[in-house]
Amino acid sequence: MGRKVVKVLVVDDEPMVCAHLRTILGSAEDIDVIAEAHDGAAAVESVVRHRPDLVLMDLRMPGVDGLTAIEGIMKLDQPPKVVALTTFDADQYVMRALRSGASGFLVKSTPPEHLIGLVRVAADGHTVLSPVAMRRIVASSSDEDAARERAKNLIGKLTERETDVLTCLGEGLSNAQIATKLFLSEATVKGYVSRMLVKLECTNRTQAGLLAYDAGLVTR
Known about the structure:
The protein has helices at 15-26, 40-50, 66-74, 92-100, 112-123, 131-139, 144-155, 160-170, 175-182, 186-199, 205-214, and strands at residues 6-11, 31-37, 54-58, 81-86, 104-107. The protein is of the alpha/beta class.
């Protein structure tokens, strides 16, 4: 239907999981699973070689794990979007993955009929993480005090309007929804978000949303 084809790299130490994801995603005309890797080191090499738009990254792998791989990928020039794969959504690795630059996470039990749509959402630059899941993950974080202090220091760089936009990001709102809520144009919101990410030293909207929670801008 005219959509750009999303090039996906699947990373999991279980070949059967990779085959399962390849089968599901391959049924969509606008998604192309261009490669798979079975450990973190191979994942970074595959990103360099194949330049995917999106990486589905298992977090718990022997050898070089998914967290280390995400950190390595984020250091590359123009890194792809990365979505963490986990067995359960309370996994402490998820918080570390998000702080390292992952755009969100998916549990491996995600129904096949939902997976394709979520991959498209992530490839478009949106967070694949519900506000409810975000709250639960933040609440379970073991480094809550350090994160709160860092978040408050970073948010001190923002203007009042930028802080309003950040709060909306933490609430899980899209640019269009933020524009409606704050009586701004969508283009203006995009500009605010771009400047905010630089000031907050964030690579994506998910990291910015986490800062909103850490700083107490979003509590419900």
